[in-house]
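During the second year of the project, the team shifted from modelling isolated chains to modelling whole assemblies. The rationale, set out in the original proposal, was that interfaces cannot be judged from single-chain predictions alone. As a representative example for this report, we include one of the complexes processed in the last quarter. Its constituent sequences, exactly as entered into the pipeline, are reproduced here:
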Amino acid sequence: MLFLKEFAKAGWPAKIGMAVILVYLFCAIFAPLIAPYAETEVIITSPWVSAEESGTLLGLDQLGRDLWTRVLYGARNTITIAIVITLLAFFIGMAAGFFAAVVGGLTDQLLSRIVDIIMAFPTLFFALIVLSILGTSVPVLIVVIAILDSTRVFRISRALAMDISVMDYVEVAKLRGEGLWWIMRREVLPNALTPLIAEFGLRFCFVFLFISALSFLGLGIQPPAADWGSMVRENAAAITYGIMTPLVPALAIAILTIAVNLVVDWFLRKTSGLRDEV
Amino acid sequence: MRSKRDVGAGERLLTMRGLRIDGFTDDRWLPIVKGVDLHLDRGEVLGLIGESGAGKSTIGIAAMGYARPGCRISGGEIDFDGIQILGAAPAELRAVRGARIAYVAQSAAASFNPAHRLIDQYAETPVQHGILSYPEAAANAKDIYRRLDLPNPDQIGFRYPHQVSGGQLQRAMVAMAMSCKPDLIVFDEPTTALDVTTQIEVLAAIKDIVRQFNTAAIYITHDLAVVAQLADRIMVLRHGLTVEEGGARAMLAAPKEEYTRKLLAVRTFTKAAADESESATVLEVDNVWARYGGTDAGVNVLEEVSLKVGRKTTVAIVGESGSGKSTLARAITGLLPPFEGRVLFNGRELPASCRRRNKNLLRHLQMIYQMPDVALNPRQKIRDVIGRPLSFYFGMHGAERAARVRELLEMIELSDDFKDRYPPELSGGQKQRVCIARALAARPELIICDEVTSALDQLVAEEILKLLHRLQEELGITYLFITHDLATVKAIADEIVVMLQGRIVEHGKKEEVLTPPHHEYTDLLLSSVPEMDPDWLDNLLQKRRAA
Amino acid sequence: MGLLQLVAKRLGFGLLALFVITVLISLGVEVLPGDLAQSILGQSAAPDTVAALRRELGLDRPLHVRYGEWLFNFLQGDMGTSLANKREISELIGQRLLDTLFLAVAAAVVAVPLALALGVLAALYRETLFDKTISMVTLGFISLPEFLIGYILVALFAVQVNWFPAISNITPDMPFLSQLYASALPVAALTFVVVAHMMRMTRAAIVNLMQSPFIEMAQLKGIAAARIIVHHALPNALSPIINVIVLNLAYLVVGVVVIEVVFVYPGLGQLMVDSVRVRDLPVVQACVLIFGATYILLNLTADILSIIGNPRLRHPK
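Output from the structure prediction step:
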């Protein structure tokens, strides 16, 4: 509740951002109820029929399906996958990062070097290699991107835990005789939470853009599932005919990432001001 | 009272009238300095003294027309030798800064540009102001370095800042301030970060150079004894307002205001001598050797350290930074297991590493730290901070635990409603009290106090010392008191252990150690602690030169 | 640690990463359920076609032999042949690599000075309208998917006003200026992608620096603003700024892949994406190694330059 009270005092960019995020979540959850047609329903078998002609909001896509319906379902598919990947990446990265920092020694060295090697190489190329070996499917996408992204989370969690574990209050706990688990849960985690929440927002944006890019390249979520990145690719040819509707899913991506960034920005500014209430 | 120098006396150099400065916090401008009047004559040294948050640094640099980011000068008038500083054109201000008013900061290590040699940074001011050519300035630099007693004055300027030690760098910054022979220098806590023996060198250098060139100075510090050595006049500030102002000697002899009296009295608390009866030994350190980085590599930080601590006594371990005194605490607590020697508690040998000590052993040995900010988890309520040892060691829960927390808060003189607050909402002194309560919650026999007062303002520090003393009387706790501050030692210790480079150089009852003859190093240490007497520095330097 | 040791350590990690990638690929192929040949051709493929592909891929021989042979050939410049069209990979890659480099270099030439200038200006005039506007705009650009930037440029400059071609048909025999004209939009898109990041990082580095006590000291010495920037800030900003530049050039290497697809630019990125789609593993591997090596080399350069730019490391005690 404190969060709500603090948020009421936030500036308009953060409030707009939050509103946008809520609208997106609403669309993602209730897509089947809001959408006028079914996800893959073909209305007229002709590409890019305009809005007036087809009587729809945004017109039809390259196969004659309703674009607005596809955008709504796209929200559902793309956002869900991005959230699942980010959660998984945080789960892996935080567990490994805290563990490495608190245990130290050889374990830390080993984990850190593995992460160094993965991070010495751009995520996209790693992903492309794995996808060309395993082929593209949603479970593969989720696992591969989550593992690659967890390296970033690992670095941050480890650094945070390192900073916190040199604090005197952690030494106090050690001298009191507290166990590792208690120290991680009660001394380290609460103090690492704020930066990690902000990082979650940023990582979500990255994952979201990354999946969209992969889908755009034709290597992400596969048809006929609606997905914003693939929609842009499939309909890109229309742009050269002067039809701008394919830009709608791309804009949808952009607006969500901007919104998340605005909220994260507010959150960071709020919490770096030594206000320890949230 | 006659001024220490009368050259040029009487000619007004700087006048501030009704100075107001705001700081930006929590999205609002709040006043930091609330209407301060100040004046300074040519060649005069004014001491600005106050605790943290008094606004003294802000006033000091405002004399140069400068406000730090997040601050703004919101009102008043500053007249420097006929120039209206507030509202002056940028070019006009620039002509004053460095050339006529110079600044000496607290941390020379941060204030020197790491990319340039010392001598180039010295020469920059006069060359840029068109006062001297580079060769002239460089020649001057060497002269000033010599006057400030810097080693190898002809060469030292060609070093980079990170290649020079802290005390020398601080003197090099004083030299840099002198490069244009300014009318006024603002000294902003220039010795606060230094060890006492180094502080003396810098103080002597400042006093010397200010006298030689008849430079006026504003000397900002929280330490009345330091300012007593330099200032002709002293201004006491509190919460952005002037408390009292007057001639240095007059004020030290007869302070008018209650607050000033308190500041002056700050180092007078002394605990009564412990009863002579030999008490049982609680802690014994027996020939301990320790080093960082394993047994094979690294340099010893502790060598051949042995000492005994008797029940209900306070043993103070004194030394400067790098003497190994904090390492000794880590060796005793088992955070840094010694590679040789034993630590005995009530006659039983303790396992070297704290990980191998059982709950009961850990409970009896508690620790209080220097920085209460980082010794308390900012995300735990005070009730949990104090309550955790209660449930951990004694299995207390619910009402029983709550009652004990209330009792402990009472002991440290905090009201019961503190239990629901978080540490960031507390002041430094209150946080340190909570740390004490947390240590007491374990019902320990021995508490190791590691520089517990050095991060606090002097008045607050004194209160903490009194509290610790009272608790010892009431509960019979034994203290091992680690500090670099001899005033603290005089106040609270029964026995003193002096450490230097990882070894104990002197050890004995307080009266024995404090009365001559001392060990050579103890003597240096003791004689370097500034006293309220304005002639102390001059006398000391004379004595040292004679020796 | 000495300069040489630091560099050697970084280089070692880079090479190790490349090595690990190649090993991972070999292992990945090995542990695949069924095998690669089956998986590429699909379940319905005739057994003798699968067997033929398996022979072609060398799957009938032990893993370490295959790997050793591949590594040996690769180090001599023989990258093998494509599965899709049986052509020599080195032949396939040659011209495309040059085209991709052309695109990346052109974008860097525009982006670096632009980003540095904007970043420094925003830092010097921070909290002004200029700074806030720039900060909002670049935040927007960072949030945009690269392909959206590409298509917006197409929509504006190739469809609304027909100034530039929407598709970059460049061929080796085209004159330089025509090549430049044909790739104007991809260069612009890539520039936008990189400038936003680079500008924000530059601003952050400078703001951070301008808050150091030694800058305050210079101001209190009465030094002119221009000299403070050139003489006091710049020597210390060098190493963070170089780091920003090189990191973003490395980022550009990644961005180039998407932008090439948007503009159907005949570069290495396009080839790589197509090869992943048909699972032409040898080609993907070769492309990834080339891109990866470039990326690692750039990061290494950043490390070395920032060490050289740090006065504390340049003048040891």
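DSSP finds 21 helices and 20 strands in chain B. Chain B touches chain C at residues 61, 64, 66, 68-69, 93-99, 102-103, 105, 107, 110-116, 124-125, 128-129, 160, 162-163 (CB under 8 Å).
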